[in-house]
Amino acid sequence: MDKLEMRHTLLAAKARKKMSWDDIASAVGMSPVWVASACYGMNSASPDIAKKICTTLDVDGDIAEALVAFPTKVWDEAIPQDPFIYRLYEVVGVYGETLKDVVQEQFGDGIMSAIDFTMEVDKVEDPKGDRVLLTLNGKFLPYKSW
Amino acid sequence: MDKLEMRHTLLAAKARKKMSWDDIASAVGMSPVWVASACYGMNSASPDIAKKICTTLDVDGDIAEALVAFPTKVWDEAIPQDPFIYRLYEVVGVYGETLKDVVQEQFGDGIMSAIDFTMEVDKVEDPKGDRVLLTLNGKFLPYKSW
Amino acid sequence: MDKLEMRHTLLAAKARKKMSWDDIASAVGMSPVWVASACYGMNSASPDIAKKICTTLDVDGDIAEALVAFPTKVWDEAIPQDPFIYRLYEVVGVYGETLKDVVQEQFGDGIMSAIDFTMEVDKVEDPKGDRVLLTLNGKFLPYKSW
Amino acid sequence: MDKLEMRHTLLAAKARKKMSWDDIASAVGMSPVWVASACYGMNSASPDIAKKICTTLDVDGDIAEALVAFPTKVWDEAIPQDPFIYRLYEVVGVYGETLKDVVQEQFGDGIMSAIDFTMEVDKVEDPKGDRVLLTLNGKFLPYKSW
Amino acid sequence: MDKLEMRHTLLAAKARKKMSWDDIASAVGMSPVWVASACYGMNSASPDIAKKICTTLDVDGDIAEALVAFPTKVWDEAIPQDPFIYRLYEVVGVYGETLKDVVQEQFGDGIMSAIDFTMEVDKVEDPKGDRVLLTLNGKFLPYKSW
Amino acid sequence: MDKLEMRHTLLAAKARKKMSWDDIASAVGMSPVWVASACYGMNSASPDIAKKICTTLDVDGDIAEALVAFPTKVWDEAIPQDPFIYRLYEVVGVYGETLKDVVQEQFGDGIMSAIDFTMEVDKVEDPKGDRVLLTLNGKFLPYKSW
Amino acid sequence: MDKLEMRHTLLAAKARKKMSWDDIASAVGMSPVWVASACYGMNSASPDIAKKICTTLDVDGDIAEALVAFPTKVWDEAIPQDPFIYRLYEVVGVYGETLKDVVQEQFGDGIMSAIDFTMEVDKVEDPKGDRVLLTLNGKFLPYKSW
Amino acid sequence: MDKLEMRHTLLAAKARKKMSWDDIASAVGMSPVWVASACYGMNSASPDIAKKICTTLDVDGDIAEALVAFPTKVWDEAIPQDPFIYRLYEVVGVYGETLKDVVQEQFGDGIMSAIDFTMEVDKVEDPKGDRVLLTLNGKFLPYKSW
Amino acid sequence: MDKLEMRHTLLAAKARKKMSWDDIASAVGMSPVWVASACYGMNSASPDIAKKICTTLDVDGDIAEALVAFPTKVWDEAIPQDPFIYRLYEVVGVYGETLKDVVQEQFGDGIMSAIDFTMEVDKVEDPKGDRVLLTLNGKFLPYKSW
Amino acid sequence: MDKLEMRHTLLAAKARKKMSWDDIASAVGMSPVWVASACYGMNSASPDIAKKICTTLDVDGDIAEALVAFPTKVWDEAIPQDPFIYRLYEVVGVYGETLKDVVQEQFGDGIMSAIDFTMEVDKVEDPKGDRVLLTLNGKFLPYKSW
Lengths: 146, 146, 146, 146, 146, 146, 146, 146, 146, 146
What we know:
The first copy, chain A, is an alpha+beta fold. Helix content of chain A is 52%, strand content 18%. Chain A has helices spanning 3-17, 21-28, 32-40, 47-57, 61-68, 83-107, and strands spanning 110-124, 131-142.
């Protein structure tokens, strides 16, 4: 079973169970963004967590194996089109150079890891319109000289 | 004076004054990421803030006018190459679809605004290696039906 | 059922019923452009409207569910080829910079939302050749400084 | 004098005169969007109008000649990056196919001309946030068969 | 039935009938280039002509409906590869700017329509090698000022 | 002197002399499209014709040398943006496959040469709007088998 | 039967018959490169040669018809990836401008035809490593002036 | 002195001396294609040959140094536009896969080197039109297994 | 059987046998990277090695034939997206020019072959985090002059 | 002084001093590849090393400051053209997927860092042609789950 088939099965099971990502995340003891990305096939799960996801969503063990497999991470469009995802791309375009300068001024020459990395979504209620809070947390990796 | 010349002048003045973005931000009463982006030419400042930036960095009033001008926001590469900026692009590629699902499940069909939007950088000290914390805060905009 | 299958079913039903978008729009109490975009899978409908669309077109309830689902909005060609759509793209290319200046002069630094947004099509009869009137109506969003 | 130099001269004169596009448009008896696009070098003016623009902005007659010249219309990016212009591009991507169907249902097989074409910008005040109204008005051109 | 299936059916029928485009064009009273483009799915036919094409090629009435449908015109490669089509693309690249100047000098600022447009192919016999004569005939559309 | 400088000089001289391409073409005994393309730097002239062009436009002999040089033919955009040139590109996209079939049916497997090639522009007056007539005339080259 | 199916059939038959392109070429009295390109679907064969190819490879007459059909020549990648084909592309990149100059110095302004064109492959044995000899033979086509 | 300046100097000297590539090649004892590519900056010369080229063309010793420098080989367009160079690209596109098969059948799995490589241009006179003969000669390199 | 089917069969057999690439490589007496690349379809094996791979993985002889076939080497994305592969691409981008200079300074003008080439992967244990050691070993090929 | 000017100055000084990268690397106590990349502007040096590089090459202190500045790492071509660099790109294309599998089998799901990374060049003398040995050494970074 490949990641694509796994993903269809898991999303269908999630719909059938009427569970949110928060529900599943609580059930397996992980974070909603990570659980969703694993079910979308963009991260691998440990055998233990994979089993918990399958139990929670009532799907059989083949799926657990597919969740454990190491994914090849690819996306469809170099420049995303869906407005939700494009806005994130736009933020990288507009603020990328600024962030590089502000972060490197504090941390030195290096990058924020996208591998040793976690991310959370929060909702901030606001009478003028609720706000989405995305928190990206990545290890700083200094460039090596040798 | 265009934004490019303004930017060179401001970055040179910043280096001469040996001030960090934090220092300038405190002096003008705004956030470091926003101040840096205005000095890079990717945001416009109000006349009042523009004047404060110029005073802080000891540059003359033409610069203030350039800071107030409404920028055309463009970036050089559709797919960024500098490793710092590429990692952010990679996060959008790997997690974009996941984030869309997690956010829309909580907020309904819509997007996180990149216009009614703020962003902060923080440093989390960690014995295994300090971590960069990026916080994106955007108003949720529901799609309209009509 | 995904949006693509939904779309084929709805367009076939529309042909079978010999209804125009105007007819369907009147029947469900919404605007023709929005109704068409929802049936094409580029907007989500509320459960209530989805049900009305299905009743109007005599299709079953699975379709209603697909109309309610939040779409991922993508299009086939970065630069459109069909002459009808290309002309719109050309207008953006030729007048984009001009519009930005004219609008921002009146409204300040910001954008016209494509999310809090509606659009209408009208026909203006003219002996020298009828004219198409497209009206785009989007909320102005000022850039935030912080 | 080429269109680029003309444009810089006209925009500088406009700033010096502290006139808005509305002011200039009233003075020359044309529409603001068209006047702005001619000054940006994306449309040619008749000798008569060109002279009026020059008189209004107090610039000399070489500029009039440049305004009269037939432009080669090009734009910098196949996919625009500035958020203002991108939102228009996004509208074409999201609604292009829908518009083609809605318009052709009413008018027959053909296109909306981008040449025999006018456009207006209006401001609709709204307590929840002012709205931008763009009106595109193009002659319908039926495909010929032969 | 979509345009692709229609096209396969019509080309197969044409081969079976051993008719040339000239033969079919004469039978239906239209021009060979237009008839071929309608059968390839790049133009729509009136119901009357569609019926004649179907009668001429002995195919059933579903095909007529597909011929009448308004096509979405797309092509596979932004830069064509087949040597026949590439040579036409090359002519546009090499002579495009020249033609713009020569035509606009005679007609004023505007374009040659590709919609109100016809095209013919002729063969000029020549002892040094026969020559292909392509005649493009498009309405001149002056840019509007407003 | 390179082709670009030559072109600027020749277009300036043409404006100064207030001659049309037709005027120059008559004076040198060649066709307007070819003369324009040589002056734009997209074709080389024989020394004899080059001299006549220089005499006609009152420019000195360096220009003649540049007219005689063999050009490297390049154009700026793989997909043209100016509406005049784009319409020609669109014709190639919409009708390319059709033309290949219609021509090869008459001539056999091969191409229309873009090298052994001439082109003319004519104006057809028409009360409903004048029409542009482009005539492309290229030698048919059959594919060789060996 | 289309060219793709033809190609699979012919390559399978060739493998079954354990014949090399040289063997087939000798049997049909043509050159190996041309025979291979016809079987790959990149050239059309005369009915006579097509029949000989079919007889040699013991395949039935439908294949002959497909060999006679005029191909649309397309290739998968604008920049080839397979190392064998990339090296040829690299030669065009590195030496293209040089070849243009060397050939045009000898022949005048024009091109080497890729249509009235043949090509051969030879093996030159060499103790330091055998060498591949590719010979391209194309008619010189002078640019026409008119 | 960089390769670009070197190239301009050498081509100007060649024009001044009215020497062909054949003349220069004979004078320095190398092949015309190689000499031209070295002067264009796409190959490096040994100090000895560099000096001979400079002597032959009467240019000073800085040029010799630039001829000896190891070039970075780049070209302007991924898909060439000049018709002369495009025809070579087209040959690679149309025949690349065929050549790979024909050559590998004779030589085994591997490539024709573009580094251990030479190339010649010859003219074959022909009453029906002279022909260009390009001979590419590259060492066959078998893929290694390990 | 084509390379894609072969690859699926071999990877499935490897999973069933629970063998690592190291295990298979030892069994067939070749290196793990090469064995993996042959099973992925990016290198051809000799008949002898192909048979050993099939015996080791208990698959039948058709697979051996597919392993022996000469592959056409293509990859999906010009710019890789999976983070593992992108990091290698980034190394080529960041260090490519540097490596060219450092290697050519030692070896002269030429390249490192990617054909007469081997590669190994090693693991270096390190308390601060294990390290990956990639060793690329390619024959130096000097450019020929002729 | 920006990185580009710094690079020109350093390469000129290196040529003047007739030092190899090995010589400079020994003098400053770092590795040749790293020293070259810092001088090319693709890595930043510590103030101490920067001073040593300047002393070794006899250039003044402004250069040291430029060496210390944090670079924005960009490269000219998404797909490199110079044959030396292209071969490295080809290795990533041909072996990227293979390496991912071989490395992840040994190390788990993760990547080889291109930041905590070093690289060496060695020469292996060989009577059949010397070989280039590139050694890449990067920390393995496991993907985090959270």
